Each structure stands twice: as structure tokens, then as C-alpha cells.
Amino acid sequence: MDEYLDKPIKTNAANEEGEAADSAGFSTLDDGDALGFDNLDQPAGQRSRIEREQHRSDLDQATREFGSAASADGKPTLPEGRAATAKLERIKQELNAVPALPGVYLWKDKSGQVIYVGKAKQLRARMRQYVNFQDERAKIPLLVDQIDSFDYIVVENEHESLVLEKNLINQHSPFFNADFKDDKSYPFIALTKGDVFPAIKYTREKHKPDTKYFGPYTDSRAARDMVDIARRVVPLCATSCADWRQLKRRLEKNPLALMASDARPCFDAHVGLGPGACCGAVTPEEYQVNVKRIGRFLSGQHREFVDELTADMQAAAEELDFERAARIKARIDTINSLTDKQHAVSTRNLDADVVGIFREETIAGVHVFMVREGRIINSNEFVLNRGKDVPDDDLLHMFLLRYYDATTSIPHEIIVRDEPEDEEAMEAWLTEKLASPHGAKVRFTAPRKGEKHELVSMAETNAKHTLMRYKVRTNYEDKRINEALLQLESALALDEPPLRIECFDISTIHGSYTVASMVVFTNGKPDKNQYRRFKIKTPLDEANDFLSMQEVMSRRYAPERMADERFGSKPDLIILDGGKPQLSAALEMFDKLGIRDIALCGLAKRDEELFVPWQDTGPVVLPSGSASLYLVKQVRDEAHRFAITFHRELRGKGMTASILDDVTGLGPVRKKALLKHFKSFKNLKDAALDDIKAARLVPEEVAEELYRVLQQYNRERKDVRVVGGAQQCESDALASTGERSRTDEGIADERIDG
Fold it and tell me: pTM for the whole thing?
């Protein structure tokens, strides 16, 4: 951070004279405030935890209150009122003094807390997009509503702004920036490079400049095991050793005071885990060789390490030092056993990190595979908080900043689903962190097929399971459901939380095979025993969701069905997929049935709007990313899945139905015998009644019924009209098997949402 204190820094600009500044609506700040670093010397983690949590709680409450309001056009409500308008105009005037240079901006609320940090190639233009509502992200109106002031820091280029943005986010933990779900520290393996005899340790400490860290590890047991394995491969002192700590204190007093060679070795040196620095068995120069080796081992360079140990083992054998050769052989076996446990993913010498993200509307899971020498040597998983309203690009950007700021294990390649927007700046920053002596650079790759694409898919699958495990472990699902039901009760003006929700969807294709689904959510969870599906009986020449919806309502909520225990209790809320037209159709049928005590709403898919009968000013818009919106969309998607599955089932049966199935007394054996006798279905449908009877394959009454059906079929065929190729006459192949003429199987499934 200190390297940026000498950069030109500006904030709420003031004129040279204080009176002029006040008249222009600017605030005159002292030097400390003007820099915007009033809290830089006090990290966010050192502030009062109660104060920070209270501030986040206040912002959460503001988010719910702000998001619950919606304008008539369904868009998020913009700040209103004289005070809000005056504040917005003041900020716009202050933005006139912001330069069009690259830098980092910090939005603050009225308490002075930083609530959002971002970077920009042109500060003034980017910051104006917020107050002019030109940024289409759903969180922007709420963010602007909370903004009271801002700071900005001008830097030389986009790379510097990326580094500064990362530092400021780590420091302030802004509410509107995506962040890790919890504030816990992750375990690392560290080498104390600042000591004469560096030691290895398992730690969760904040990074120190004289210590090299490997990780992070999200599995603490795996990190501890790796420390033990590394010391068996390369003997090295551990910070937990009392003799090493004594040696360190002695060397701090007198750097030349090494331990005498006749000193008693520690226990680790006895069992081969330590090189014997405590008893003078190794010089600092020889010890540094082990430090470099263990660094390469922890970085994943196992193959090269095995080659070196093999050469040492052969040299020891040639010198007839078989005891030393046996110790080296044991180390090689340890590495090989570790390699056997690692999943080989590539036939190439791949050195990459694979990042997979799976997100819901409130949280997101991230899984990172560390691939070294073509093998996954480690995998880390994280849960990101405040995923709501954060686009995928921002989510990936924030995670990469946090993750690679914490780890020193920088690969040559990072494989992701889509490249980050600031790809060049990110690559430059990571290349600088890699600091390869050979000039190697870090690059991002977004494969569309092949081995790397499969790796990304595997990482995303694991990210999904990461999120599932977190939700089970923290009981997240129940908390979210309770919150969603309470939000629906408030937003839809219900008398109580909707513990039983029924949702209906219509599925059809040009009015054929029209079906409806009814799914039930009890206490916010799918209740599949209560699911029902309906075949629409109303004759339809074309798709008509309104008549179909009225038929379903009349059948489901008829008095006899309402009294039927198999249909369960009366719902607290009915959701109709399709919006206002479907709602009007259902209300009309409810008037005929005399139902007045069931709440209904229509869900329009376009903007996820809820139309309710008691509000004429416009639909109800649930807050983006809220638990209630997530639940409503989950209910709607389940109804659609259930409907389209039934529709496809019926259509599949209809496509292969035979006209001969309509003949009473004509089973599979007789059909097969008739087709074999007449050679084809075409010959059969053109045959006279006497010819069918003469075949003596079916009784006379069945032959007469068959002839009648075939004659009716022939008359209907004459009336078939082919219009634009959308419907096709029966092909020879279909005719030979006696299949009905249907619409082209290539027509996609169609859902009419009204």
C-alpha cells in the first residue's frame, strides 16, 4: 500500500477558498480526510467486530426494505425524496472534479464506512455511470441509495489499479463486493526463510514478508499430512521443535554461534525427520539445499524431485553407502505413494489451476484444482458470500483477487469457463507474482472442448457439491426457506406465510397433446407425493393457455376435489406460470366456483414479475437475489419440468400409435399376421372387405370393424392439406407400419406463456 501514497490522490474536490467550496456544494476536508486513508493504519480485522457486524446488519435490513419496493414498470425503485435528490445532485457535482485517469474508487455511506471498491480505466466516466444509473446491475440503485461520499486514488495504469483494488478490498471488506462466505483464515504450509535454519510449519497466520507460504489448503488434515510427508522426503527442522527454537534464539543473539557438533540431537533428527541442525550435523549452506528442495516439492515438482533422489541413491550405492541409499529409497517410495493417490488428468506436463464456479442467487461455491505435472496435487473449495446481484465476471474477478493474493503457488496457466474482463491486467499481476527466472508468463485459458474443457466441467461439478455440503453443514436451506416464506407473506400481503404453495403450468404444441402440471411445495420444499398432472379435455384447434388454465382450475378446485384427501389441504398460495392473462382466466373461474379465500398470483417469465389481483398499479417485483425470488423461480421451474415431461410422454406415444390400435379385437399377433399377409399397410388399407375375410386371419366381426376403421381413415386422409411443409402427409415408411400421420417430429417443444 505504501507505494501508492506518493501517487496523486484526490477526493471530494474543493476550491482553493473555503467559502467558494461551500457555495459550490463541496466539503472542505483536512489533509488526513482528503487522502481517504483515515482507516488505512487500522486493518478491518482490528475494528470492533460488534461494530462491523451491526453495520452489515443495517445494510442487510436496508437491502430488504429497498428491494421490497417496486415501481409500476417493475424496475428497481430509484432514490426518491427531496433529500435523496439533493444528495445525488451534490455527488454529481463533486464528480466533475474527478479526473479521467485510471484508478480506484471507494463509495462510502453516511457513517463513513467503505461499502464498495472498484477500479476504472477512466474514473470520472465510470463513477458517473453509478449516479446516472447507466450500470444495469440490479444492486446499483440500492448502492447509490446508500452512498453519501466517495474517495478515489489515481494510479499510473490498470495493473496498479488492480493491485490497489485488491488491497483495499482486503482492508475494508466492503458490503457490496463479493467476498468469502466466512472470515475464517485458511491453513498454509510455511517456510521461515528469514532464519539461518529455515523451518517448516503448519499455520493460519497472516502472511509475513520473511516467510514463504504454500496453499491455501481448505482441508487442514491434508495440510498437516503434507508437512509430515515433506519432512520424510527432505529432512527439515519444524517450528514445533524445542531444540530448533533454542537454536533460533541463540543465533539471534550471535549469528556465528552455531551448535557444537557434540550436542545431543533432537528426537526429529533421531528418526530422520530433521537434518540435525541442533547438533551441528549440517552447515547453513547444506541446509539451504534442503530448503530449496522442499520448496520445489511443495510446489508440486515431484517428478523432477524423484529424478534427483534417484541419482543420489545410485551415487550412494556406488560408494557402497547402502544405509544412506536405503534412506533415499524410502523417500522415493513416499513420493511414489503420494503420486499414486493423486488423480492423473493429463498426458501432458500440465501446470495449471482449474477454477470452477457454481452459483445460486444468494451464494456461490468455488473449487480450484491445482494441477502440477499433469496431476491434481491439491484441491481447494470456497463459499462466496453476497453472490446476489453480482455478475459472473465480477464474481470471478473478486475470487481471483482474493485467492491469488493469499497463495504463493502461481501456475503458468489458469483455466476458467470464461476469461475475466481485465484479463491483461490480471495476467500482468500474476506474472509479476510468479517472478519466473526464465521469463515465463501466466495466461488465462477458456477452453471450449477437449481435455481442459472437461477439467473445468469437473471443477464446476465439485463446486456444486461444495455448496451442497456447506448448506447441509450450516442448515442454510432451512434458514433461506424461512426467510423466503416471510418475504412472500410481506410482498404479497398474505395473512400468513404460504406453507403450502401450488403452481400450475400448461404445456402444448399447437394445441395438440395439451397437458397441465400441478406441483406442490410444503414448507418451502417439493412435496412430490402431492404432484398431479392433467390431460386437457377442451377441444383446441390451436394453443389456448387461458381455456386450458380455466379447465385445470375447475377440475382441481371443484368442491368434490377440494374435499378429496388425496389432493391434500387447501393451498395458502397459487402461482400460475404465464403472468397476468393466466391470472385473469383463473380469477374468472374462481368467481364461478365461488372461491374467495385462496391467494393467487401470476408469474411472468420475462422479468420474473408477480401479478396479483389486489394491485392495479403494476406487478410485484421481488428483490433480485432474494430468498423469496429464488423460491418462486424454483417452484415455477419444477412446474415447467413436470409439465413438459408429461407432454413429451404423450406426444411420444402419439407419434408411434397405429390406426390398427383402434380396432376392437385386433391384438399384436393378429396385426402382425395381417401385415405379413398383405405385404404392407398400404395394401391392407386398400383391400376390400371380402379380401380381408378371405385371408381367414381374424373373425368376421373383427374383419368388418377393421374395414370400417380403414375406410374412415382413408376418408380423413383425403382431407389432409399440406401447408408450407409444417404438416406432412404420411410417408411410405409410416404407411408400411400403419402409423398415424402426425406433425413433424422435428418441431421443437413449444410452451405458450401467454
Answer: 0.50
